[in-house]
Design goal:
Layout lengths: L1 H16 L6 E3 L5 H6 L4 E11 L8 E5 L5 E6 L2 E12 L3 H15 L12 H6 L4 E4 L9 H8 L7 E9 L3 E3 L8 E6 L6 E7 L5 H8 L25
Parallel strand pairs: 1-2
Antiparallel strand pairs: 2-5, 3-4, 4-8, 5-7, 6-7, 9-10
Length: about 240
């Protein structure tokens, strides 16, 4: 799921917010070593925190059906996680970095959620809204200054981008429908002779019963089951 969020943000920035600008987009930790290796103007999105939103945790499951109404699978409810990114601009001039941050802020603030067209993989399959918040003070125990200290760098202007995304729950696929019924096989311990017989058989629809009995079918049979020895269907009569 995390890599799918990365891919969605990359597409949103390169194809929308930063379209036409000669900028690279990276997802690296902005350490001193990374800064020294950088050779082109870059927008960096550093994923620094991942936490589950416990207020959105749900119990239960959802059933997936085929067009005929048969159960295909059972899906556990997804779990929701907040992914926090430290967004920074890296050029040779602070004024250019401020301009890039301004473009990012103006572009991202227009989106309350990641556009569905940017979603791939399980995020696209779940078809749930992936919310975006930009430049909102992080509700965490640690501040951004602590993050920069941990990275070994100097404090730098940045935007805090938080993506709330679902992680798909486990899936249990339904077993194939029983079509042959139950058979009992016995074998004589002395002679080795065996016998197999059917104990029960799944109920067949009317057309299949006619086909197996070899009875010519002249007209459609009513959908209701019929009583033995009679032609009146079981159920309320009009």
């Amino acid at each position: 799921m995390i890599d799918e969020v990365d891919a969605a943000l990359l597409a949103l920035l390169t194809e929308d917010t930063l379209a036409g600008m000669d900028l690279q987009v990276a997802f690296d930790a902005p350490t001193k070593d990374w800064t020294a290796r950088r050779t082109a103007p870059t927008v960096n999105l550093f994923l620094y925190d991942i936490q589950e939103d416990m207020s959105l945790r749900q119990q239960g499951f959802a059933l997936e059906h085929d067009p005929d109404g048969a159960v295909l699978a059972e899906h556990d409810a997804p779990r929701w996680f907040s992914l926090s990114y430290l967004v920074t601009a890296w050029t040779s001039r602070p004024q250019d970095e401020h301009r890039i941050l301004s473009v990012l802020l103006a572009g991202l603030i227009r989106h309350d959620a990641v556009p569905p067209a940017r979603l791939t993989g399980t995020l696209a399959e779940l078809a749930l809204p992936i919310s975006l918040t930009i430049a909102v003070p992080p509700m965490r125990d640690r501040g951004l200054a602590d993050i920069w200290t941990a990275l070994g760098g100097n404090l730098k202007p940045s935007l805090d981008l938080v993506v709330l995304a679902p992680l798909a729950g486990s899936t249990v696929r339904a077993a194939a429908a029983v079509t042959d019924g139950l058979r009992l096989t016995t074998r004589d311990a002395d002679t080795g002779a065996g016998e197999s017989r059917r104990l029960n058989q799944p109920e067949l629809d009317a057309q299949e019963q006619v086909r197996r009995m070899g009875v010519p079918r002249e007209r459609d049979l009513p959908g209701e089951r019929r009583r033995r020895g009679g032609s009146r269907p079981i159920g309320p009569q009009r």
